[in-house]
Design goal:
Radius of gyration: 19 Å
Shape: globular
Bound molecules: protoporphyrin IX containing FE
Distance between the termini: 29 Å
Number of strands: 14
Strand content: 15-25%
Order of helices and strands: HEHEHEEEHEHEHHHEEEEEHEEH
Largest sheet: 6 strands, antiparallel
Structural class: alpha+beta
Helix content: 25-40%
Length: 314
């Protein structure tokens, strides 16, 4: 497992940092012809950008991780086989609950403990990709209180750690070049805090499936079938299959929510979780967290291994 973890991009296996920036790029139709050459030039510079900004403050732990969508892969890397499970995000809807699939060819995740350094990195990354892409979304996420979402519950508690995390997150079964890569599913959610804060704490705790202040999981005999942590948990033949969530709150008083980032060794785990959350089951139960949050975006990216990225080094 340790050998595999060394192949992952710096931001993939690590916990979320105090500040983060999430950048979604699309390839300009008029520049498709140069995309394949220009991505190589841009990737060669990523390491240089990271090192030069990190020099300013090593304690900030800045990392830049990059991923590519299924639609973009053949344009960017026509000579390299696509990761076996790379696929487009499947849009889903059940009644008023909607998970849209939205545009995005290249996704960049910048993590560090300083917003100013993230800004510098983001500016350089945008410049680096400018010859063939347009930045269509640029969201700054940040740590809120003791790692809470803005709905005021601690997020990330049940994430796997150590070897279990490596196994859950990194691809093992693919060509050598893709081993140590990871599939990332992103969704930007907007909260409806007025509606959420109008609920009693007891009901909020049932919706999440944990206590609010102490962050303790509710016992099975009191946890409803529609609790978020019941609906999102994926089990195959009674064995729990984990993912790594690096969610961060984003936004301001006017508009805010959770930026969901789920890493897994196959996108199917997160697809299954999303289906369990959104579609009402035979009892009419769906994830009631979805009564209070709205997904505005949805995308799947492959975050390639360091072996893959090393091909483009100067
Ligand atoms: C607005 C969006 C979301 C919010 C505010 C949110 C919040 C939370 C919170 C507070 C917990 C409990 C603590 C923890 O274990 O982390 C949790 C658990 C979890 N969430 Fe979410 N979540 C969101 C979206 C999602 C999505 C889209 C997925 C999957 C596709 C997901 C998957 C999970 C999983 C797997 C758990 C752990 C379940 C367990 O094993 O106990 N969440 N989430």
């Amino acid at each position: 497992m340790t050998h595999l973890s060394k192949l992952a991009q710096a931001g993939v296996l690590t916990n979320p940092t105090t500040h983060a920036e999430y950048m979604t790029f699309v390839i300009n139709p008029s520049n498709q012809g140069v995309a394949c050459t220009n991505i190589g030039i841009a990737l060669a510079k990523l390491d240089v950008i990271t090192k030069s900004i990190n020099q300013k403050d090593l304690d900030a732990s800045l990392s830049i991780s990059i991923g590519f969508s299924a639609l973009a892969w053949p344009l960017l890397f026509p000579q390299i086989p696509m990761p076996a499970q790379l696929q487009a995000f499947t849009p889903m809807q059940d009644g008023p609950r909607v998970f849209p699939a939205t545009e995005g060819d290249i996704f960049v995740m910048i993590k560090s403990n300083r917003m100013d350094l993230n800004f510098q990195a983001a500016k350089l990354v945008m410049r680096d990709l400018a010859s063939f892409t347009t930045l269509i979304e640029d969201i700054q996420g940040y740590k809120y209180l003791d790692n809470r979402d803005m709905i005021d519950f601690v997020d990330g508690t049940e994430n796997p750690t150590g070897d279990e995390r490596v196994e859950a997150v990194l691809v093992q079964e693919d060509i050598d070049l893709h081993q140590g890569g990871s599939y990332l599913t992103v969704q930007r959610y907007v909260d409806h805090l007025d509606k959420w804060e109008a609920q009693h704490t007891e009901y909020q705790e049932q919706v999440i499936g944990r206590t609010k202040m102490d962050n303790v999981e509710l016992d099975d005999d009191v946890k409803p079938a529609w609790a978020h942590n019941a609906k999102s948990k994926v089990e195959i033949d009674d064995v729990e299959i984990k993912m790594l969530r690096q969610n961060r709150p984003w936004g301001n008083a006017k508009e805010h929510g959770t930026f969901f980032l789920g890493f897994a060794s196959t996108p199917e785990i997160i697809n299954t979780s999303l289906k369990q959350m959104i579609y009402a089951d035979a009892q009419g139960d769906y994830d009631r967290l979805l009564d209070f949050v709205d997904a505005k975006t949805g995308g799947i990216y492959f975050m390639p291994s360091m072996t893959f990225l090393a091909q483009f080094d100067d």
